[in-house]
Amino acid sequence: MEDSFKIPQLLLRYALGITFLTPVADRLGILGAPGTGNIEWGNWSNFIDYTTTLMPVFERSIVNVMGSIATIGELLVGICLIIGFKTKYAAIGASLITLTFIVFMTLSVGIQKPVNYGVFTASAAGFLLSFIPNYKWSIDNLLNNKTK
């Protein structure tokens, strides 16, 4: 049976990967200064300020650590999805990271924010991607072909 997921899995990997890398670039100031264009944060301090509103029970220093962990996770997941390395695990990670965002956003600012930001869709997309059996045009596929 022919693999009918070749193009959809590639597009989904890229879409999710970009969805994770863009906010990382924003919070690191790579996309522009705060208040310009479509910049959400523009720097780390603004990102932590916003994250503190999502986690009001934690002190800023703890939020800074959690924000750092989330940023590293998003960076790794985004890169792995785009290049197709450990794709199944990266997709599960994407789903779990966004599910965590859903919980914190809903509890702190209400359900509308995660809906507006497409977090439910990203979480479901990561979960769906983890079930695709073969990731054509990926490092995973290259490694699988070498071992056969």
UniProtKB/TrEMBL annotation:
Lineage, top-rank taxon, reads Bacteria
Name the UniProt key words of this record, in alphabetical order: Membrane, Transmembrane, Transmembrane helix
Which compartment or compartments is the protein found in? Membrane
Please report the record's description of how this protein sits within the membrane: Multi-pass membrane protein
Mark the transmembrane ranges.
62-83, 90-111, 117-135
One Pfam family cited in the UniProt record for this chain: DoxX
Q: Does the keyword Disulfide bond apply?
A: no
- The UniProt record lists the keyword Membrane: yes
| Gene Ontology CC terms | membrane
By what name is this protein known? DoxX family protein
In its UniProt entry, the species of origin is given as Chryseobacterium antibioticum
